[in-house]
């Protein structure tokens, strides 16, 4: 357990099973790269609400984008307390005991204040969000115009108060259960892209672009 | 858009893109069945925190289980305001414009108070959580003993204030972009189980159990 992005505050420190916790920035970046979306928690009228959001990251900054970003920002343009969590499921873990059934997973939790971005940073953020999913796609697509930029809300969160948690192991049964005649092990979970499907209104004769084809060929998708 | 689980409160009503919203309980159940984990938002020291959690559901009750459930319950045994969100990603959506890039997904948001369960309900809840991932596994595994039950925290949330949101369509480009020489369409995303892997300490001669084999054969995993 290293501590590059920290030291972690009392808030972000993984409280249970600290052997599964890892605060290394490289680990956090790898997990972010391995996930397609995050789940973002904010307060609305004093109550927690969790929303799936697209994201990208540049250096040590996370950028968030989603349909609710606008409404959140309308309410609080000076920033909102947020918690971003992204999780990849790597496998199901079967123990002899029901109690020790588990999952193998990698997750990142980033806490902090999300603030709106504008101007050049907004365009860089949108590029990062598109490129996070499909490297190379930004330069293939028609760039956003001024109206679209005004309609799009993007939030920025520094990756400072962050932690990663990883479980990557077989079942951990109690010693007295090991001889039980019950199968134990793991079932890996993988996510894949399948063949691209043309839009109904696609002009005839346009093939999937290099960025899309490259992503398809890369095989495994992200969690 | 129907409203069986409601009518939705002002809080849970999907505020943006209401054409993507669906409040039908059957839809909510189908999406819950299609996801392996949820992301749960609660308040800790007044700040939002989002944690991945296993879950199950019985009738109109959601049960949550995770390593942090215990610490949350220690703090507030009379229940905590929570928001449970589960999302399945079905595909990447490529538009001609960067602005209209999107995802096809199905998500459920359930808001309410999470309270601890005990006694028979706790065992039913744990069974539902194990069976949610792998139908038939509960009866194969060694049932929990009293010590394990005491060590396990399970939360209950009524599925009352709930909404579903679904996007399942091709790109929605502006009319003036349709003729651009840019590929547009979808890339489906699928999740699969691969072959079960025996635990290192598995007694020789035990094959994967029927529940595990059945799940493996069922093909596509959940999001």
Q: Overview of this structure, please?
A:
- 2 copies of one chain form a homodimer.
- Helices cover 20% and strands 36% of the residues of chain A.
- Chain A is an alpha+beta fold and 223 residues long.
- Chain A has one domain: Roll (Pnp Oxidase, Chain A), CATH 2.30.110.10.
- The longest helix of chain A is centred in the middle third of the chain and has 15 residues, at 119-133.
- Chain A is globular.
- Residues 1-18 of chain A have low confidence and may be disordered.
- Chains A and B meet through β2, β3, β5, β6 and α3 of A and β2, β3, β5, β6 and α3 of B.
CATH architecture of chain A: Roll
- What is the mean predicted local confidence, pLDDT of chain A? 87
Which chain pair shows the most residues in contact?
A-B, 98 and 98 residues
The succession of helices and strands of chain A, N to C, reads: EHEEEHEEHHEEEEH
């Amino acid at each position: 357990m290293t501590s590059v992005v920290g030291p972690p505050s009392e808030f972000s420190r993984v409280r249970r099973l600290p052997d599964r916790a890892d605060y290394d920035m490289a680990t956090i970046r790898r997990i972010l790269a391995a996930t397609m979306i995050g789940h973002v928690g904010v307060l609305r009228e004093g109550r927690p609400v969790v929303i799936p959001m697209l994201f990208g990251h540049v250096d040590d900054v996370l950028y968030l984008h989603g349909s609710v970003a606008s409404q959140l920002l309308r309410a609080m343009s000076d920033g909102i307390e947020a918690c971003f969590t992204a999780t990849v499921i790597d496998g199901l873990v079967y123990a002899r005991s029901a109690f020790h059934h588990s999952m193998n997973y990698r997750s990142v939790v980033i806490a902090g204040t999300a603030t709106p971005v504008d101007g050049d940073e907004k365009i860089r953020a949108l590029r990062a969000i598109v490129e996070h999913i499909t490297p190379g796609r930004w330069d293939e697509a028609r760039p956003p115009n001024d109206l679209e930029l005004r309609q799009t809300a993007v939030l920025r969160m520094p990756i400072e108060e962050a932690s990663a948690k990883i479980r990557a192991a077989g079942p951990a049964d109690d010693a007295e259960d090991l001889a039980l005649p019950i199968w134990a092990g793991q079932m890996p979970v993988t996510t894949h892209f399948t063949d691209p499907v043309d839009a109904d209104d696609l002009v005839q004769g346009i093939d999937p672009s290099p960025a899309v084809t490259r992503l398809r060929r890369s095989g495994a998708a992200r969690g």
